[in-house]
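for ur thesis appendix - Elongation factor like GTPase 1. copy paste whatever u need, i formatted it the way the template wanted (i think)
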Amino acid sequence: FIPLNFEATPIVRVAVEPKHPSEMPHLVKGMKLLNQADPCVQILIQETGEHVLVTAGEVHLQRCLDDLRERFAKIEISVSEPIIPFRETITKPPKVDMVNEEIGKQQKVAVIHQTNEGRNTQMIHQKIQEKIWEFKGKLEQHLTGRKWRNVVDQIWSFGPRKCGPNILVNKIWPGPASKASKEATKYRDLGNSIVSGFQLATLSGPMCEEPLMGVCFVLKGEASLSDCYGPFSGQLIATMKEACRYALQVKPQRLMAAMYTCDIMATGDVLGRVYAVLSKREGRVLQEEMKEGTDMFIIKAVLPVAESFGFADEIRKRTSGLASPQLVFSHWEVRPQIP
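the 3d part is after this line
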């Protein structure tokens, strides 16, 4: 079968629970049916036990909640306020930003971080399921420049969840020629702990516990290694996580906001009002063109997802129904404000 490609990406999430705890099985069954009926909906169960509904936007969310109440679960449910995810990243690649975290008196992990430019992030987001050599070849084409030389061969892991847009580069692991050496064996035994620490660090950043995006961590330095099992394994996971978090805090950090692409059709009489609503909600106009043979203008803009709630109603109200927007999730964008 050919996989379906959906233009709309689930981005807005809410936590749902039944008003009567005894009706939880009905809610679980109803959410499964909703997911089967609407492939654009994602159903998640958080570590805290919350049942989370992820939808494409405000209108889609309301439609799904109504279907859940009236058609699938047929129970009364309580819904949390909509949650908009963010991502954490850094700006300006550091020259010498190293953090040394010691484990007792014998072991040390040195981590350098550097930015992974937006075009590289987009490449990493491509299907990891492709053939590994094909993916590697494409990655080499995008990671160009002196600082990225031979980096593809040294990539240890992606994160978070081993498929995200962050990279762990290993510059202390011996090369293929020395795979049989004792040192290489020790590093391989310790690899799971180091990668686990990296996964935890990229899953929740230091600013607001949101996942990281577009960051490359380079593991450098010498280390005297002892037993890789027992308490040391857990210590190494915690140390790697803290080293990555401290390395991030050395340089300016920024939040990345989810952005909608906004297509608006409006007459020339109400263009000023459309721009006023976009400006109020931190929107940015990219293009404006007149539709041939009509008096309608097509406006292309970007709008933060966090500012999109009530946007369609407000723009229709301000323009007396002469403008209609269409919102589709587009990309993540670095916010200029210092968090």
